[in-house]
């Protein structure tokens, strides 16, 4: 059997923790090999070892059967290993070609750069793999999906034979995901080999040949994808049975809690991003907003929560006008907010996780009295929440920064739900989290709904929207363009609506009543 | 994750080790410079020591020198904790000095009223001088560094003009403040052979305690630090970010203003036309840096700087120029600022020791 890459019994330690413990991955030529594991399982560490960013303590790496020592990323590049990073590393005002040749520019006469030659070569590569990239377009003018293809081209241009994709679908629409899958298939058809880092089981089932599972730094084993199923993969990854289909009773919507009327919100450039939006959310239901990133979702949430002024329109919470109130007053009116960017908004990372648990309530009794903080009460509360929401932390005094993403998120969710708000806004509540944490968070959201709270869920993950929502509002270009019931729609239809096409009967229903 | 946790538990150790190593390296390099320039470092440092601790008088003078440094150090540390860089402590010292002496001269009242009034006037003046850059930053986004630098010059020249034209008739120094507004103490002077030691040191130490309490124990400190660490999360949590920026600059200015009060009501009892800055505010930046923006650290760093500066006066007796002390101080700051290098070396050392 011919392997292009073999990582045998890799062990990587950091002070106090074994990140990779005896992991073996063997990549066959021409296969798509999934690397599956929870957050913090050690996938990235392992790939950083392969890419030369870390040196393993034990084990060996072979490329085409030969033992190699990869001491830095340049060595990896020379061995034909390329990485498509999750966060693109592109220069926005540069063209596609300029970005691709950056660092290995073809030299013309007198030190000039031969752009024409490079463009021709890039166009050839692009055509061969069906990437359909315009080499002379500027990065800032092309879509996220296209930008990702530029990253792929970058590795191919440098002669990569093995491509590592680091969670490539996190930023894509369903259509773009399908196209990416096609690109991956045509890459392997041309003899390339692919490692796909992911925790999305659907993608693995759809496109991968084999799958290596890592759990808590240990290699669990490699399975052939067509001999397995998502349930087995999930339990291999988490180490227990996982319930995918979120159990929930039918919703019993009651009175309107959030009422938005003809709302306009501008971004920093003074351009309208929310354009006359109408939306109602009732007590006891979860309304999911589906949409591609950048269609005004962030601005909508910021306007509701008081972080951004709205230009015109009306936002009512429990029949009280909260339009353009300060965040504190909105919070006091009964709003909980799980922010999209948990590092930027959700936590003060340098504070202990315990101090973060009272971020909105520190000034109230019993956490303080005449402006003097009562740490005993603060940490008592923190300890309760940490236990109830299963936040894994060495102690409540540990800086929030030291917790993993999933545990940070559980802490935020605990804090927001504990205030028992009438309206809970959950923006991307499970972004970047593994199935175990996702399951837990979905359960908590539904529990709140059953207690009669109104929940507004914003997510770019269609699975999440379909699974958790009682009602789906599709947002496109600053407006709600469709109202759907999860049981009566499918991802295909949603995907089209999110991309701006209208469907008979759904396209013009601007009002959700 | 385990890696991160271990690093934070090491942070406390590093936090103490880095300044100590920096100080030792600074002294060592100072010794080398003395050697190279043909002086005896042992004699030089002995003279430095004697200059600061020779007898009760020098000790009294050393404490006097430490006093305003504690306060300017606190001023800058406090602003730092909120993510603001107050370069304007210098100007705040000058206006605080001026206001305190003004009240000290102009008013007649029993000490129990006069002294607190003069102190408050100085603190307030410093606070106002901090308020202006604070409000400009909060409302218009003007960078506080630019504004505070400019405010220093405004303070310097306005103060000089007031001394010349308002408080005196074209003289360079005002009359002495009334004894009812003085921080001086005959008792302290008598036990230190008539040094200029005054009660201000108690105010400075009390201010350090106040800063510790405000920063660590109150909702005000909770907000200020949160705003310093993460402005977005603070806004999300419903804190008034603008208010906190202004408040931080005002409190910082109050501390610096008090440093001016120390000089005005304690050391000199007058205010004079000055041709250049007092440097108390700028030294405060170094004190805050060395003290890791921590009140106790600031007190310790101020003691070190005060001792070095006071002791330097005696160094020419060993043939060493006083400027050498400035070089040593500069080197200490250099090593603190480049603490990354020391951290890195320590980490390397630990790894290899395993």
Automatic annotation (TrEMBL), chain A:
Residue ranges crossing the lipid bilayer per the database entry: none
GO MF terms held by the record: ATP binding; ATP hydrolysis activity
Lineage of the organism: Bacteria, Bacillati, Bacillota, Bacilli, Bacillales
Subcellular location: Cell membrane
Membrane-topology descriptor: Peripheral membrane protein
Superkingdom, natural source: Bacteria
Homology family: Belongs to the ABC transporter superfamily.
GO cellular component: plasma membrane
PROSITE patterns in UniProt: ABC_TRANSPORTER_1, ABC_TRANSPORTER_2
Keyword terms: ATP-binding, Cell membrane, Membrane, Nucleotide-binding, Repeat, Translocase, Transport
UniProt name for this protein: ABC transporter ATP-binding protein YufO
All copies of domain ABC transporter, residue ranges: 5-241, 258-502
Family annotation (PANTHER family): CARBOHYDRATE TRANSPORT ATP-BINDING PROTEIN MG119-RELATED, GUANOSINE IMPORT ATP-BINDING PROTEIN NUPO
InterPro entries: AAA+_ATPase, ABC_carbohydrate_import_ATPase, ABC_transporter-like_ATP-bd, ABC_transporter-like_CS, P-loop_NTPase
């Amino acid at each position: 059997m011919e392997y292009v890459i073999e990582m045998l019994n890799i062990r990587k330690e950091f002070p106090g923790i074994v990140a990779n413990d005896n992991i073996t991955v063997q990549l066959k030529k021409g296969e798509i090999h999934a690397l599956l594991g929870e957050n913090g399982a050690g996938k990235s560490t392992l790939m950083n070892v392969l890419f030369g960013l870390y040196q393993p303590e034990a084990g060996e790496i072979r490329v085409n059967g030969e033992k190699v020592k990869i001491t830095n990323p340049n060595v990896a590049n020379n061995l034909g290993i390329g990485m498509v990073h999750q966060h693109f590393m592109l220069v926005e005002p540069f063209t596609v070609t300029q970005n691709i040749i950056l660092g290995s520019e073809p030299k013309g006469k007198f030190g000039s750069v031969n752009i024409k030659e490079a463009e021709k070569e890039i166009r050839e590569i692009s055509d061969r793999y069906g990437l359909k990239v315009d080499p002379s377009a500027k990065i800032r003018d092309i879509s996220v999906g296209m930008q990702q293809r530029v990253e792929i081209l970058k590795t191919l241009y440098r002669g990569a034979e093995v491509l590592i994709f680091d969670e490539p679908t996190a930023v894509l629409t369903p259509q773009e995901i399908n196209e990416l899958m096609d690109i991956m298939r045509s890459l392997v058809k041309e003899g390339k080999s692919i490692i796909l880092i992911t925790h999305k089981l659907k993608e693995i089932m759809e496109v991968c040949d084999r799958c290596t599972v890592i759990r808590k730094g240990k290699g669990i084993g490699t399975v052939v994808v067509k001999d397995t199923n998502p349930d087995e993969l999930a339990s291999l990854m988490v180490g227990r049975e996982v319930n995918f289909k979120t159990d929930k009773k039918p919703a019993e919507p009651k009175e309107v809690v959030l009422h938005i009327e003809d709302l306009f919100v501008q971004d920093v450039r003074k351009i309208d991003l929310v354009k006359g939006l109408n939306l109602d959310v009732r007590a006891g239901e979860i309304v999911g907003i589906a949409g591609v990133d950048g269609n005004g979702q962030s601005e909508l949430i910021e306007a509701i929560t008081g972080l951004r002024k709205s230009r015109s329109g009306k936002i009512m919470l429990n029949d009280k006008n909260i339009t353009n109130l300060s965040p504190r007053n909105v919070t006091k009116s009964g709003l909980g907010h799980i922010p999209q960017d948990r590092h930027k908004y959700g936590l003060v990372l340098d504070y202990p996780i315990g101090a973060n648990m009272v971020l909105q309530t520190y000034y109230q009794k019993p956490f303080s009295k005449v402006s003097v903080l009562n740490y005993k009460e603060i940490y008592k509360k923190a300890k309760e929440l940490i236990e109830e929401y299963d936040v894994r932390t060495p102690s409540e005094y540990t800086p929030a920064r030291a917790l993993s993403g999933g545990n940070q998120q559980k802490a935020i969710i605990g804090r927001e739900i504990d205030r028992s708000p009438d309206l809970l806004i959950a923006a991307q509540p499970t972004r970047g989290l593994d199935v175990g944490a996702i399951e837990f968070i979905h359960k908590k959201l539904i529990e709140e709904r059953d207690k009669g709270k109104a929940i507004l869920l914003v997510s770019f993950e269609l699975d999440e929207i379909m699974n958790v929502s009682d009602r789906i509002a599709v947002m496109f270009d600053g407006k709600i363009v469709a109202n759907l019931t999860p049981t009566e729609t499918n991802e295909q239809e949603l995907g089209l609506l999110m991309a701006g096409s209208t469907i008979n009967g759904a396209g013009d229903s601007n009002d959700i009543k | 994750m385990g890696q991160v946790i271990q690093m934070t538990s090491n942070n406390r150790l590093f936090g103490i080790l880095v300044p100590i190593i920096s100080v030792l390296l600074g002294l060592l390099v100072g010794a080398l410079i003395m050697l190279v320039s043909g002086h005896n470092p042992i004699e030089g440092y002995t003279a430095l020591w004697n200059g600061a601790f020779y007898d009760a008088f020098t000790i009294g003078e050393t404490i006097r020198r430490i006093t305003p440094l504690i306060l300017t150090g606190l001023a800058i540390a406090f602003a730092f904790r909120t993510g603001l860089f107050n370069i304007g402590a210098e100007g705040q010292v000058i206006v605080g000095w001026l206001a305190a002496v003004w009240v000290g001269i102009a008013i007649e009242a029993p000490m129990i009223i006069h002294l607190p009034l003069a102190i408050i006037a100085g603190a307030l003046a410093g606070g106002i001088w901090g308020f202006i850059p604070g409000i400009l930053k909060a409302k218009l986004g003007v960078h506080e560094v630019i504004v505070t630098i400019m405010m220093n010059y405004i303070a310097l020249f306005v103060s000089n003009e007031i001394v010349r034209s308002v408080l005196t008739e074209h003289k360079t120094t005002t009359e002495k403040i009334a004894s009812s507004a003085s921080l001086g103490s005959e008792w302290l002077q008598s036990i230190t052979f008539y040094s200029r030691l005054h009660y201000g040191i108690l105010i400075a130490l009390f201010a350090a305690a106040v800063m510790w309490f405000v920063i660590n124990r109150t909702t005000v400190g909770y907000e200020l630090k949160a705003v310093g660490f993460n402005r977005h999360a603070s806004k999300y949590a419903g804190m008034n970010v603008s208010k906190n920026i202004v408040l931080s600059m005002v409190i910082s200015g109050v501390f610096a203003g008090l440093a001016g009060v120390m000089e005005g009501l304690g050391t000199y009892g007058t205010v004079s036309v000055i041709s250049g800055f007092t440097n108390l505010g700028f030294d405060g930046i170094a004190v805050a840096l060395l003290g890791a923006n921590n009140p106790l650290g600031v007190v310790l760093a101020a003691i070190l700087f005060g001792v070095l500066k006071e002791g330097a006066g005696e160094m020419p007796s060993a043939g060493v120029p006083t400027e050498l002390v400035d070089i040593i101080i500069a080197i200490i700051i250099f090593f603190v600022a480049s603490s990354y290098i020391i951290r890195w070396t320590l980490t390397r050392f630990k790894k290899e020791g395993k």
